[in-house]
Amino acid sequence: MSTLILRILKVIGKNRFYNLYKRKIDDPERAILNFHAPPYNTKLDIAIINGKKREHVGSRGVRDLIEKYRPLLGLHGHIIESPATDKIKNTIVVNPGSLAYEGLLKYSIIVIERKLEGLLVKYKIKGAAILSG
Q1: By C-alpha distance, which of 115, 116, 113 is closest to 125?
Q2: What share of the chain is helix, strand, coil (3-state, %, to 5)?
Q3: Which of 6, 43, 100, 116 is the most buried (most CB within 10 A)?
Q4: Is the pTM for the entire model greater than 0.90?
Q5: Number of Cβ within a 10 Å radius of residue 50
Q6: pLDDT tens by residue, 37-62
Q7: d(CA 64, CA 79)
């Protein structure tokens, strides 16, 4: 779990943190979350430990938040050797990774589709790609 989220949870408690998030966002399914830490147990959080072993090292707090509120999209980083897209329930999560040490920029392009369903506007991730150049 990220240090900032741990500090917030220690100070205000998990339920209060979720309630603050919920109050700030009217419709979480239209939200795009950007956390430096990737969610735990996804393709985005696999780190190489001691040069060999690959382990999930992401944030359980970020994953809990995504599972509970199901935002449209999660943008993440931190684990540079784990560029990937994945899905938690209906939420697409993306970590473009990094090859900066090789002088190469890695980035994501995400296409969001806006559809009118009756009187409601719905958003859907139409595609997500990780590119470099």
Answers
A1: 113
A2: 30, 40, 30
A3: 43
A4: no
A5: 6
A6: 999 999 999 998 887 788 999 999 89
A7: 19
